[in-house]
Amino acid sequence: MTDTAIPRFTGDASPYAGGDPYADHRTADFPFTHLVDLADRRLGAGVIAANDEFFAERENLLKPGPAVFDPEHFGHKGKIMDGWETRRRRGAGATEPHPTPDEHDWALVRLGAPGVIRGIVLDTAHFRGNYPQAISVEAVSLPGSPSPEDLLAPDVKWTVLVPRTAVGGHAANGFAVDAEQRFTHLRINQHPDGGIARLRVYGEVAPDPAWLAALGTFDLAALENGGQVEDASDRFYSPATNTIQPGRSRKMDDGWETRRRRDRGNDWIRYRLAAQSEVRAVEIDTAYLKGNSAGWASLSVRDGEDGDWAELLPRTRLQPDTNHRFVLDGPVRATHVRIDIFPDGGISRLRLYGSLTEGGADALAARHRELGG
After folding, report:
1. Confidence at residue 131, expressed as pLDDT on a 0 to 100 scale
2. Helix (H) / strand (E) containing 367
């Protein structure tokens, strides 16, 4: 269900008058956008089916960055839009030219990482007179890699996350979600038709304990395995969450970079691991950070919310654009890790390799059951 305190951007936007196409874009500071985007392509998300994508393909929904608008870009089907846009629905005939109230368009989205959804943003940027009248969002959790036919089977029970709700054109329409369940797929419905530029699904990753148990040793801080950033001293140039995204960084802003410090302090990130774990090896990568990488870094850990912090890796010199590897003398038990960089700058990735403790595995399995897994 939704939180009525979230601002609603219903109604038309003004026609595009030239200049900055985002000048009159409507949005708000939604309370959940600090969480990971479970529909991030980097995590493996995808739009696996849609009933119609006549004007603009469904895959645009998950593209990174804001939608782009070129007022002079037309194709053989009409205006090229950076989003998912369906054709105009029509009724049964001349005496009934309008679609019925139940007719609508839909798209199926596979989340990149299964998880608990806290908020959804459906951005209709640049869709000013061609956005849907209303939207609704449903979710389901199915194991494995279900096909569109599997998801659309009549026996699949979908949970309504956002009931049919009026939305606005050229606006970031945000919805808080209150459903303490683990989901793997979404069905985005637009009533009756129209276009949506971007979809963002904010929440917390809920990994499959059986998969992690089969892996044995894995990256305990990785987003896809349930790690998360709890806090960071600075997010000026790029988010701290980038440091636990899949794969190596492919450009400078795909890591974490802080502003230049003009005091005697230092910057840091605090992480929560997938569960209580034993850390055995560390990677600190400064890929693509050449004149702005951190000069030194240290790591500390604690076991439990109230545990004392203990040194894992002493302050160590870092090289620009380099992956640094450290094998620990022995396994170190932890639930949280903090990296301190000196004095400022950035890193692209942090990897913490190890395995869950028996207690950590039990806690993760219990949480999985609570979420309906």
Report:
1. 96
2. helix 358-370
Residues 290-308, mean pLDDT to the nearest whole number: 96
Does residue 334 sit in helix, strand or coil? strand
Mean pLDDT across the chain: 95
Q: Is the pTM of this model over 0.85?
A: yes
pLDDT value for 5: 64
- Structure tokens given for 341: 């960089």
CA atoms 184, 190, 191, 192: torsion sign: negative
Task: For residue 212, give the 3-state DSSP assignment.
Answer: helix
- How crowded is the C-beta side of 267, counted as CA atoms within 13 Å? 23
CA distance 206 to 110: 15
Alpha carbons 205 and 58: distance in angstroms, whole number: 24
- Three-state DSSP at 80 gives coil
Give the confidence band of 2 by pLDDT, cuts at 50, 70, 90.
very low
CB 59 within 8 A of CB 82: no
Contacts of 211 (CB under 8 A, 6+ apart): none
For 260-312, give the secondary structure using H, E and C: CCCCCCCEEEEEEEEEEEEEEEEEEECCCCCCCCCCEEEEEEECCCCCCCEEE
For 116-174, write each residue's pLDDT tens digit: 999 999 999 999 999 999 999 999 999 999 999 999 999 999 999 999 999 999 999 99
Indicate the SS3 state at residue 16.
coil
CA distances from 128 to 14, 31, 105, 195 (A): 7, 25, 18, 9
Residue in 160, 10, 161, 187 with CA at minimum distance from that of residue 104? 187
